[in-house]
């Protein structure tokens, strides 16, 4: 008799993969980030499609490994993680939930939803002030910039808008 | 696609990968040598963007070639004369002013180039370019900011960045020279007409130099040949460092 758990079903797989987080920003799941693009099942073989945030993002290899091991632990062995480049990832794909989680974690979420040119304001994730100063165009990772709040003086990471 | 065009496309991807990997490697040399911590992080993050582009372009080239080579083989197992990068990318970093002056020149060029390539009929090149253009927009904003700060800064920073532009100026014409193979790809709707990018590039860069109180260099020399595999003496040293591990321990993997 075939075990039910081993018949892959995309909805269950999405749920299963909701435990996989960005290794550099562990409050965000790959869904929150918009990196997880698709899950398809063909004759028992699972194909997970992800897209890199930045061309050289080193986290992509860790994400791939985490997806494979999460599925392997649940008993799914025939898994291919595919990388797609088009359409190019944009911070517009970050979920509302993800933006809130970022803020609570101390990272200011991307300022605008119409990207290319940054138009919206960046707010301090600690006190909410919009009186902030750019310290550096890059923060701890390629996807972030470093700011300081002029009101509460707290330095913080800002998730850049691309 | 006829085989001539296919070969031209393969060479095109390799040349673009070479542009990215050489500059990416140069920027990575700033790791722990940046003028201050934040700038150290910025330079190496920009480096990662370039290396990421090179990986995508090399992987695509390897796939087009279909001979079982990998992106690593492309980067680590080709010698100087097989590299096809534009010379400006391989020049040593010099001081911070030189690095940022080169960055402004290349970032302004990349904005035009990748915007054009994003319209390529080759869907993979178009996809890679669409990612690259977003990064280049950000890179350009940063290099523009630095050039204005350095140019309109102290006497010393002004002099250093002016000297840097003077030394780099003769490497610029090569960026806008089309090869015959490239024209063939352009006719097929695949390549970008680099000669048509010069006008916009000139207006962008000259405006920034003027705002930075810098003079437009009056240099009448120029040098090229990178796309034909003719390089400066610096590329050999760059590759010796970058390829050391694969040359010493062939086939090693992470």
Task: Describe what this molecule looks like in 3D.
With 162 residues, chain A is an alpha/beta fold. In chain A, 23% of the residues lie in helices and 22% in strands. In chain A, the strands form 2 sheets. Chain A has a 4-stranded mixed sheet. In chain A, strands 1-2-3 form a 3-stranded mixed sheet. In chain A, a hairpin with a 7-residue loop joins strand 5 and strand 6. Chain A starts with 9 loop residues before the first helix and ends with a strand. Chain B has one domain: Up-down Bundle (Ferritin). Chain B contains 9 helices and no strands. Chains A and B meet through loops of A and helix 2 and helix 5 of B.
Share of residues in strands of chain B: under 5%
Low-pLDDT sequence parts of chain B: none
User: Could you report the average pLDDT of chain A, rounded to the nearest whole number?
Assistant: 88
Strand content of chain A: 15-25%
Q: What name does the CATH topology of chain B carry?
A: Ferritin
Q: What class do helices, strands and sheet pairing of chain A give?
A: alpha/beta
What is the distance, rounded to the nearest whole angstrom, between the alpha carbons of the first and last residues of chain A?
50 Å
Radius of gyration of chain B: 18 Å
CATH superfamily placement of chain B: Ferritin, core subunit, four-helix bundle
At CATH's second level, what is the architecture of the largest domain in chain A? 2-Layer Sandwich
The CATH topology of the largest domain in chain A is given as GMP Synthetase, Chain A, domain 3
Radius of gyration of chain A in whole Å, from Cα? Answer: 18 Å
- Helix percentage of chain B: 55-70%
Question: What is the CATH top level name of chain B?
Answer: Mainly Alpha
The neighbouring-strand order within the major sheet of chain A is 4-7-6-5
């Amino acid at each position: 008799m075939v075990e039910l758990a081993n018949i892959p079903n995309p909805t269950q797989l999405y749920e299963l993969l909701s435990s996989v987080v960005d290794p550099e920003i562990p409050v965000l799941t790959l869904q929150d980030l918009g990196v997880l693009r698709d899950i398809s099942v063909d004759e028992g073989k699972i194909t997970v499609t992800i897209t890199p945030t930045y061309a050289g993002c080193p986290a992509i290899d860790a994400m791939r490994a985490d997806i494979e091991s999460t599925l392997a632990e649940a008993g799914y062995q025939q898994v291919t993680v595919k990388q797609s480049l088009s359409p190019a990832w944009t911070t517009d794909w970050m979920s509302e939930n993800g933006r809130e989680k970022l803020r609570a974690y101390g990272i200011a979420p991307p300022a605008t939803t119409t990207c290319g040119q940054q138009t919206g304001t960046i707010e301090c994730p600690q006190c909410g002030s919009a009186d902030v100063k750019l310290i550096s165009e890059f923060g701890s990772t390629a996807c972030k910039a470093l700011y300081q709040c002029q009101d509460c003086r707290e330095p913080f990471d800002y998730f850049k808008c691309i | 696609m006829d085989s001539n065009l296919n070969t031209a496309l393969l060479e095109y991807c390799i040349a673009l990968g070479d542009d990215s990997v050489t500059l990416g490697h140069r920027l990575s040399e700033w790791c722990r040598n940046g003028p201050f911590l934040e700038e150290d992080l910025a330079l190496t993050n920009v480096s990662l963007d370039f290396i990421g582009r090179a990986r995508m372009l090399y992987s695509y080239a390897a796939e087009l070639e279909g001979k079982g080579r990998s992106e690593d083989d492309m980067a680590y197992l080709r010698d100087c004369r097989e590299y096809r990068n534009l010379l400006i990318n391989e020049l040593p970093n010099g001081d911070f002013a030189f690095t940022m002056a080169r960055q402004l020149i290349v970032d302004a060029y990349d904005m035009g180039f990748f915007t054009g390539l994003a319209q390529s009929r080759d869907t993979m090149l178009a996809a890679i370019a669409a990612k690259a253009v977003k990064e280049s927009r950000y890179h350009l904003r940063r290099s523009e900011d630095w050039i204005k700060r350095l140019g309109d800064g102290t006497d010393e920073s002004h002099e250093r960045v002016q000297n840097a532009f003077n030394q780099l100026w003769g490497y610029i014409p090569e960026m806008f020279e089309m090869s015959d193979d490239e024209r063939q790809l352009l006719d097929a709707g695949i390549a970008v007409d680099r000669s048509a990018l010069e006008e916009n590039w000139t207006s962008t860069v000259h405006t920034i130099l003027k705002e930075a109180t810098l003079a437009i260099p009056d240099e009448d020399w120029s040098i090229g040949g990178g796309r034909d595999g003719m390089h400066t003496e610096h590329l050999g040293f760059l590759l010796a460092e970058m390829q050391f591990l694969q040359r010493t321990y062939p086939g090693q993997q992470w």
